[in-house]
From TrEMBL:
GO BP: any one term: phosphatidic acid biosynthetic process
Protein name: Acyltransferase
UniProt keyword annotation of Transferase present: yes
Source organism: Streptomyces viridochromogenes (strain DSM 40736 / JCM 4977 / BCRC 1201 / Tue 494)
SUPFAM superfamilies tied to this protein: Glycerol-3-phosphate (1)-acyltransferase
Length: 261
């Protein structure tokens, strides 16, 4: 399947976005040889800054294989941003609606047309205290197993030093380096032609996230935690801690009232 042409809107976005990125960030980009020259594929990318989608798109643009991101549907509706999102072929995600599966179908169609679809499997900025990838959602694995396309694990680091997760102000000085390392395709063949159960998708997702984390370990020169940060598990633990504190305070109140009699 031939590659899709970059097109007017992507070139315009590059003209607008590349100059400030070049000024703000040095580049250390490796693994470009693993980006397929032809045919549809997926990249699975870690997410640790509000800036990194632009910096990662810059990396991918320079490979000649522009990415189609999955993005919130509201970004497509108004003004220049909406026109640019539509013109560059990004994929709207309609959450909690009857169109929620349309992004999945659009991603499959894009891969089948020979395009690159970029997934942030974590679904949001990492909440890991040290910036490591969290547990992933199953969308990338679902598309990969449906299409049997290559899945390229990509790790990036440096935008989070320029603009840390959930920070409002950037740290401009000293100038930061955007490091990207793309790895060889993740081997998912053992999951092919099997019933696509929740357990199968979870296992395939863990394999993808382990590959992304391995790339980030190489960039950072250190080992990631044995168990990835799990936001769902953390929310459950937080509720338990809150309930325990509430019960403890209630017990203290009862005891104080009893002593006051």
């Amino acid at each position: 399947m031939p590659r899709r042409r970059i097109g007017f809107w992507y070139r315009l976005a590059a003209v607008i976005c590349k100059p400030p990125l070049v000024v703000l960030l040095r580049r250390d980009w490796r693994g470009i040889e693993h980006i397929p020259a032809e045919g549809g594929f997926i990249t699975a990318v870690n997410h640790n800054s509000h800036i990194d989608p632009f910096a990662y798109a810059h990396f991918q643009y320079n490979t000649g294989r522009v990415p189609r991101f999955l993005a919130k549907s509201g970004l497509f509706k108004k003004g220049f941003v909406g026109a640019a999102m539509r013109g560059t072929g990004q994929i709207p995600v309609y959450r909690e609606s009857t169109d929620a599966l349309s992004a999945f179908r659009a991603a499959i169609d894009a891969v089948d047309r020979g395009e690159c679809v970029a997934f942030y499997p974590e679904g949001t900025l990492t909440r890991d205290p040290e910036g490591w990838p969290m547990t992933g959602k199953t969308g990338a694995a679902r598309v990969a197993l449906q299409t049997k396309c290559p899945v390229i694990p990509v790790a990036q680091w440096g935008c989070n030093e320029l603009l840390p997760p959930y920070a409002k102000k950037p740290n401009l000085l000293p100038r930061k380096t955007h490091r990207v390392l793309a790895g060889p395709p993740v081997d998912l063949t053992r999951f092919y032609d099997r019933e696509m159960t929740a357990e199968l998708l979870k296992e395939a997702t863990e394999v993808i996230m382990a590959a992304v984390t391995h790339q980030l370990e190489e960039i950072r020169g250190e080992k990631a935690p044995e168990t990835p940060y799990d936001p769902r598990r953390e929310r459950i633990e937080q509720r338990r801690r809150t309930q325990a504190q509430t019960h403890q305070k209630s017990g203290q109140t009862v005891q104080e009232e009893g002593l006051g009699k």
